[in-house]
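Posted in: Structural Biology > Protein-Ligand Complexes

Title: Requesting predicted complex, zinc ion in pocket

I'd be grateful if someone could produce the 3D structure tokens for the following input. Sequence and ligand are given below.
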Amino acid sequence: MSFIKTLLDFLFPQACLICKKRNNSVFCLDCQSKIKKNNLCQICGKFVLLEIFCSKCKKNFFCAKAYSLGIYEGVLKKAVCLLKYKKKINLADSLKELISNYLKENKINFNAETIIPVPLFYKKMKQRGFNQASIVAKALGKFLNLEVREDILHKIKDTPPQNKLKRKERLNNVKLSFKVNILNNLPGKVILVDDVITTGATLRECARTLKEKGVDRIYFYTLARSVYSRN
Ligand SMILES: [Zn+2]
Ligand SMILES: [Zn+2]
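-- Reply #1 --
Done. Output follows.
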């Protein structure tokens, strides 16, 4: 028995973190294929093709284009939670593969100079030890061959978690909680990255802050999009 186990360990050193099956990936292809998509605008529910916002909502959110891998449930929710709360940072390579396949299959191109992850307040960062948005940003950056900049945008207020709040409260909660910290050579075109988008209040406030300082074109990229009730 132990011989078989050793052999299996040798052949398949990894087990999928989601389905626990022996595999060569921590997020196996079988699980990846179970990611669910949605064709409705994240904000108003209007039908959209590939992006997650309709054109009207994009304007309201200061964003040129917005994409997400899939719905925040099932396998994708498990993966995000493992990354965020269980520190399974070894998911990053699988995420890179998943993100690059998605972008290639859908022929998505970004006309961007740099990638900016949605920042955490320093206390939260200290507590968690890492920023999950940075991990997603780095996975995207590796594929696009773009630099990830964490020195541009900072969170200056310790706000209560968004997931405990109603839609209207979320907008107020993050208002003026971000700051651009560099004065010169701000990139003109950036991709803002977060792990999950729900009402989009956080990304909107980040984008508004960057626009105010002169960033011209902003894309949103999130790993998952969460379904929320409109109240
Ligand atoms: Zn699996
Ligand atoms: Zn919309």
